Amino acid sequence: MLTALMDHRHFTTILHTKEELLALKKGSKSFTCPHCSSPLILKIGNIKIPHFAHTSKLSCLIAAKKETPAHIWSKALLYDRLSEVFRDVKLEYYIKELQQIPDLLITVQGKRVAIEIQCSTIPLSEIKERTEGYRRENIHPLWILTQPLPSGIPLKLTSFQQGFIRFSEEFHFFLLHFDPSKKSFTLFPHLTPVSTNSFYFSKEIKIPLEKFTIPLTILPPDPAESRILKNWNHYRGKWMNNKIRFSSARRDPFLSEVYGEGDIFLYLPLYIGLPVLPQMTLIKSNSIQWQYFIWNDVIKKSPFFTKEMIYAAFMRRLGKGSIETRNFPINPTGSSIKILIDDYMSLLEKLDIIQKRKGRGYILTAKWTCPKTFNEFQQHSRDFFPKLKHILKKD
Ligand SMILES: [Zn+2]
């Protein structure tokens, strides 16, 4: 921690030089924890920035946070920067109503913003709980991930790191990351999954610390439709091949359902497994899975169907666990599944797979007969891909 009580007043290490701190340490000054009143030691080393530590592991909220050097360093950097921009910046401030201590609490245009820097992996349920607490107190929570991320495209994220993904109109699903060693933020906009843990994004945006402000004032790049599209079929095929190679048709519930329905897994129609941007980022199951369920539960079997039927089928599958969603604890979801279904159906409509009838219903226009040979399936791809390319480009 960076703050302590000295002579009944708040004392912050980062507002003093190392020499001043060394002099204080040599003197007979004592420091106590503002939260639990137990004595603190002032630590001045060469690696970590000067900070306070509890002398014993008592039950104290702030001691329980187990701050890493990167966490303390990030907190000090953000405090410095935000103090330049905002008048009201509180460090390690105790919010009584919530019994929580955000790293920073600032007032932005009359609204309180709690900044939580997260370096170590903690349960996502804890993040969700703290987020909901802040919202209840009308405080906007801003979570910043500082765990190192691997470089390269697609971006590989653990399920913990995926918990920091948020949604906005401009950036769609995005991740904000801070690297204290480079004093720089990176924003990955338009995140679209190509597998459980890999994501495409449009173009990363670097924000140097000295430009960082709240809210962010940066322009979003073009969405990444084209890059995803170019590689989409590759990832679709890769997922299918892995499924066949690593799971047995008898033991894998998805494969056994496909075969049980008389469908040939490798020859499923190509409109099963379409990229449905942006809301499909919410779904952890592969797009082949959830779109197959929609097709199998409704489209293939009903001569006439409605959006409501498809939505209900999707929700049933979700309830049974055959479709899994991603856990985005800081992102309120709301009507996202409805939007996803709407977007998928309008894509199917544009591809002439389904057609709107008078009223609110649809019919399947392109009757599907399972290809018997690889050549027949190749013919289907030759017909399908130019159409898809054309349609996604127009959007
Ligand atoms: Zn304490």
Automatic annotation (TrEMBL):
Origin species: Rossellomorea aquimaris
Protein name: Competence protein CoiA
Residues passing through the membrane, by range: none
The Competence protein CoiA nuclease-like domain, residue ranges: 67-213
InterPro entries recorded: CoiA-like_N, CoiA_C, CoiA_nuc, Competence-induced_CoiA
Cross-referenced Pfam families: CoiA_C, CoiA_N, CoiA_nuc
Domain Competence protein CoiA C-terminal: 232-368
Coiled-coil features, chain-numbered ranges: none
Sequence ranges assigned to domain Competence protein CoiA-like N-terminal in this UniProt record: 16-62
